[in-house]
Design brief:
Blueprint: H1 9-16, H2 18-21, H3 23-29, E1 34-38, H4 44-52, E2 57-62, H5 78-85, E3 93-97, H6 100-103, E4 112-117, H7 128-138, E5 139-148, H8 154-159, E6 168-172, E7 175-184
Parallel strand pairs: 1-2, 1-4, 2-3, 4-5
Antiparallel strand pairs: 5-7, 6-7
The structure holds S-adenosylmethionine.
């Protein structure tokens, strides 16, 4: 289980279901209204985030290509799944197909309240520093760069000048997320 020890049943469910219990409510708690998700896949986390945050405008980016890793064997089918799943949010959602490293250049600087960075996959190894730097440019001051499994590429944050204490665990009320962390754009 993603290199983790047995957490007990409740923490394990929260670890696996961060897209239901953590991300949507963290965004709600911070009253974030304009966001970008990198790694939309089949729209799972976007769905719950939009459902819980009725004023949210959310853009999603994905390659939707077959890439290395067991979870991506049918990744080319995920664009249709994602568009279908998010149909009910038409008007609040914008889906873009392509390489986030390139598409990020088309986004307005300092325009976003948050970016959810869900790209901890083999395909992105070596590319995190470049994309993280672009993400920071797109966030407004005080905006949040939120991620799942940032621990897998800590070195990329250090390369950009962050220190460990800048990378905070997301909290939802008094509960700390098992999986999500964030840094603040200063
Ligand atoms: C961990 S999955 C995302 C899971 C999704 N957020 C969910 O809740 O189910 C990572 C996704 O990132 C996409 N991806 C990887 N590298 C990318 C890149 N450079 N640009 C755009 N998407 C990329 C993959 O195609 C894959 O669908």
């Amino acid at each position: 289980m993603e290199n983790r020890k047995w957490l007990g049943p409740i923490r394990w469910i929260r670890f696996k279901c961060w897209f239901i219990f953590d991300l949507p409510y963290f965004i709600k708690q911070h009253q974030l209204e304009t966001g970008l998700e990198l790694g939309a896949k089949a729209g799972r986390s976007m769905f719950h985030t939009l459902r819980v945050n009725p004023s949210l405008q959310l853009t999603g980016i994905d390659l939707w290509e077959v890439i290395e890793g067991g979870a991506y064997k049918n990744n080319d089918a995920n664009e249709n799944k994602c568009r279908e799943r998010l149909k009910r949010f038409t008007g609040r959602v914008n889906l873009l197909r392509g390489d986030a490293v390139l598409l990020a250049d088309n986004l307005e600087n300092e325009s976003l309240d948050f970016i959810f960075y869900d790209l901890a996959c083999k395909h992105m190894e070596e590319r995190h520093p470049e994309l993280l730097a672009k993400c920071l440019a797109k966030l407004r001051r005080g905006g949040l760069l939120i991620g799942r499994d940032f621990r897998n590429f800590r070195g990329s944050f250090y390369e950009l000048g962050f220190v460990e204490k800048d990378i905070q665990r997301c909290t939802i009320g008094s509960r700390t997320s098992e999986r999500l962390e964030y840094v603040v754009k200063t």
